[in-house]
Amino acid sequence: MENNNEVVLLDLWASMFGMRVRIALAEKGIKYEYIEQDIWNKSDLLLQMNPVQKKVPVLIHKGKPICESLIAVQYIDEVWNDRSPLLPSDPYAKSQARFWADYVDKKIYDLAKKVWARKGEEQEAGKKEFIEALQLLEAELGDKPFFGGDKFGFVDISLVTFYSWFYAVETIGNFSIESECPKFISWAKRCLQKESVSSTLPNSERVYEFLLDAKKRLGIE
Amino acid sequence: MAQENVKLLGVLGSPFVCRVQIALKLKGVEYEFVAQDLQNKSEELLKYNPIHKKVPVLVHNEKPINESLVIVEYIDEAWKGKSILPTDPYQRALARFWAKFIDDKVFGAAWKSIFTIDENEREKNVKEAQKAFQFLEDELKGKFFGGEKFGFVDIAAVYITFWIPMLQEIAGLELLTNEKFPKLCKWNQEFLSEPTIKESLPPRDPIFAFFKGLYEKIRASAK
């Protein structure tokens, strides 16, 4: 059994990137020490462990840092490879999982930000592009229960964490994601039936308040 | 031997395509290079990469793989032979981190340093690019990023060996200098002299002419 000190996670409760790592750790049943970070006042530990980007999450295993959430999730899958695989074993299926997780990384955060950080025409354009991206993902999901097929996996982990931000984005953008992307919402709810996901995703209203505060601090109206 | 049908949709002169070519060569994979016209995208490209509509696209037995770093990892796993990524999970995580760093921090800033007209924007990007080079300079501990043999990060960084010196010559800009980045410049030379790399790079003259033309066109349109 791992000593608590062997696995440490530097994270922010509201970070959809950090949530990915928490879900992966939960899926594997790994005990770890969680150290909440104040991203407005970065700790020496964070700056020491992630000097390049100075961001959360940072997974620390036996004193060695792993940065970038999707890289940390793959690391977790490769080290604790005796249980609950997160990526498929077939190289082609694996490449498709990596491709879609990369798509999520490239698009979803920035498009959501366009909605919560902009106003007027820019925001409207952001809403449209955001919905289109979610609809593209819906098409990729198809009739499968999860992106990986029958099992919850890498792509699901990379994406479901954004669901906790939907209420905030909908409220600020004054639109309904469910009405445009019902399949996406039912997939997210299916994921939430898993303990690893439901115990990780924070309360949506708390996230909304966090975002309003973040906007103030960043000087975004 | 299983029937292998390997196609690479690409353009000569793309550093992203080059990454894939290096990986295929390293594994000794025979493939057909299908040159693309990005101004007039082929049905094949749109069929195999409907999401991003970009090159490179690797098509293995009719199944497409997109995004250069995803393709390189796929090549490493689908074919035996020389390893591209390390076997140790921690070293693999580091390799993926630095490859992503190059994608996120080097390409955009370097490109904008060369091609932006606005002086302030250019200066900002030069600073960004050099900040990224400094991180890489500090990270380089051996002959290659991969150690004694080149690996995933070196392949990801091929842009720095062939393209950056060429682009900075065209723009008369000193981005990557021996003075500021001696280890990175030495790595440049070592990497370029590896046979696998030499044989995977496009011919210099037509690529130089292409970027010079692009540079002059952009400057002319600004006037």
Automatic annotation (TrEMBL), chain A:
- Annotated EC: 2.5.1.18
Q: Key word Cytoplasm present in the record?
A: yes
Instruction: Recite the UniProt keywords alphabetically.
Output: Cytoplasm, Transferase
According to the entry, every stretch annotated as the GST N-terminal domain falls at 5-84
**Main EC class the enzyme belongs to:** transferase
Q: Which reaction does it catalyse?
A: RX + glutathione = an S-substituted glutathione + a halide anion + H(+)
Q: Which CDD domains match?
A: GST_C_Tau (cd03185), GST_N_Tau (cd03058)
Q: PANTHER family from the xrefs?
A: GLUTATHIONE S-TRANSFERASE U19, GLUTATHIONE S-TRANSFERASE, GST, SUPERFAMILY, GST DOMAIN CONTAINING
Please state what the protein is called: Glutathione S-transferase
Q: Which organism is it from?
A: Stylosanthes scabra
UniProtKB/TrEMBL annotation, chain B:
- Segments forming domain GST C-terminal: 88-210
Give the top-level enzyme category: transferase
UniProt keyword annotation of Cell membrane present:
no
Q: Which domain of life is it from?
A: Eukaryota
Domain GST N-terminal: start-end pairs: 4-83
Please name the Gene3D superfamilies in this protein's record.
Answer: 1.20.1050.10, Glutaredoxin
UniProt keyword list = Transferase
Q: What is its EC number?
A: 2.5.1.18
Q: Which GO terms describe its molecular function?
A: glutathione transferase activity
Q: Which family does it belong to?
A: Belongs to the GST superfamily.
Q: What is this protein called?
A: glutathione transferase
Task: Specify the species.
Answer: Stylosanthes scabra
